Amino acid sequence: MDKKEEQPTIVIDVGESNSHEKAFDVISPCLQINPINLTFKHISYSINRLEINKDFFHHLSFPIKLTKKVILDDVSGFIEAGELVALMGGSGAGKSTLLDILSGINKRGNISGEVLVNNEDVKKFKTSIGYVSQTDYLKGTQTVEEALNFYIKLKAPLSSRQSEREMIVKEVLDVLDLTKIKDSLIGTEKRRGISGGEKKRVSIGCELVTEPGIMFLDEPTTGLDSFSSLAVVNALQKMAHKGTTIVCTIHQPRPLIFQKFDKIIMLNRGHMMYFGPPSGCKSFLKEAGFETEDNVADALMDAGAYEYGNDQGRELLAENFGGEKKSVQQVFEKRKTTIVKEIEEINSVDLEKMKKTIGRPVGFYELIKRLVISDYRDPSQIFGQIFAKIFFSLLIGSVFFNIQNDQQGMRDKGGVLFFIVTSQAMSLMDYLIQFIEERTLMRRESGKGLYTITSYYCAYILHSIPFLIFYPTLYLAIAYPMLNLRPGFVNFLCMWGALVLTTFTSQGMYYAIAAISPNITVAQIISPIFIVILMIFTGFFIQKDNIIGFWLWAYYLSYLRYAFELVMLNQFDDIPLFCQPDELVGGECPYTSGRQYLDSLQITSSILVDYFVLAGFCIAFNVFVLIALHLFNKEKR
Ligand SMILES: Nc1ncnc2c1ncn2[C@@H]1O[C@H](COP(=O)(O)OP(=O)(O)OP(=O)(O)O)[C@@H](O)[C@H]1O
Hints:
Rossmann fold; 23 helices
């Protein structure tokens, strides 16, 4: 049988069940779905883990031993183009693990067996496969339509035209019943948006607009009410009718939902327990001795629990089933050879190769656009920064108003410059939290091949540049004249440049902390430690000669020291200082020039050197972030 010739009608033959024909929806003019057959043969998955050795005391053996935990054991099956398949099983049965393996996601454990899409290794098409995880990773400041447009623009073939893309988005909105809410914001933690069920359908839509021939969904109905669950499964069924092969994990579906699937794959403790259409479940259970009039999905789960559960659970379930029990596994084992034979048959069918989708160069522009729109729709961080700058500049401007170049003024100026530099560095702490939140989305989207990590980070930095220049400008524009700092445009410009560079370097440092921190809590603990160390070693509190050898590294690595030295040199080099009558010591003025004050703080470098070192730190931090994002933020489960 040549399936290519038969398109768009594909015959589905499922194990021992009755074969049925499935015709793809021909009213789909836009979505170009490549029919995909998926076969998986002898899949086993195990992980090695370290465990406490309970025999340690009895036999005086090693206290820790390496054990192997088998999570999937010889699982085989096939899914044909346009089928909607439910992967069922109790908690810990191995559903998510099998879904990950089928979708080509890298796993940490040992995998054996083969997964083929249209006869080719699934791993080759990892980024072309649609995968909807249990958690919705969406940009809350986008509208529903914008989210779909973002995906299609970044993943559609370069040859596709704008009008075609618009039609696909329109069709997907329609299929998923999202047209009415297409202009609604998805919503963030601060601002409520669409409902959970709608979010799930948007996540599905984001995948669907990229026209995947095959899609995997991890528990798409979990956490949804029965109506929303039905709406999601209905949408999946419509997509399957248009030709997309769909596999999703699901927990105990109600009968209405259960019947919508073309095939059920039931797992129990890593073993396959049932493979076939929902209509075949009842006879299968009967054959295994579990005759029931209940909901078949529930009965299937119970039969598995009966076989693999403990004695107590078995007793409980025995009351329900009655009669002499057989083993579902035993009955299923007989069917296994038929499944493997079917897989060979499916693999002998010559279907078009699966298409590979490649990220588009427009990705960078789309990323910046999304970030700018996000700032516009959720400007709380920008307003927060502006408020902080105005507040701090007025605070120090009024406390240290009109500082003179006398002995007290000299010290005040030193303190004020220290405060300006360090407060500017500290004020960017919220960038760290925002970056960690963004990182999760970036990990997901780059894992799907929408863009590269490098283009994301460059876009992220680029979109923040105007703000990182504006904040220190605002700070100095208010504080500089109030404080009576050194007059002259060149001195102002030098101070401004130092503060802007400090801002960029601090942003790099916070992103570096964020890139290596596993979560926000860890990052929030690490960053104040860093900042305090950097502040102690600015050279304002303790000079190099008084630092003990162990801490000298911190003196050299404190980028705030170079920033502080720079602004001090700019303010004090070559200026005369005078004494008020009460400041004379033995009739003499202790400091008659700014240079003397700089020498007392052991500030001997030059403005140019400090600029270069600061710029070097800024570049180094950003290169470190890129390396860390590539090393630690790859999708791997
Ligand atoms: N990396 C891992 N380390 C340790 N155990 C793991 C790992 N991955 C999976 N497991 C174990 O393998 C089993 C199957 O996990 P999996 O997440 O696939 O189950 P599931 O059927 O999806 O369960 P649930 O419905 O509760 O999400 C579980 O017992 C789980 O604890």
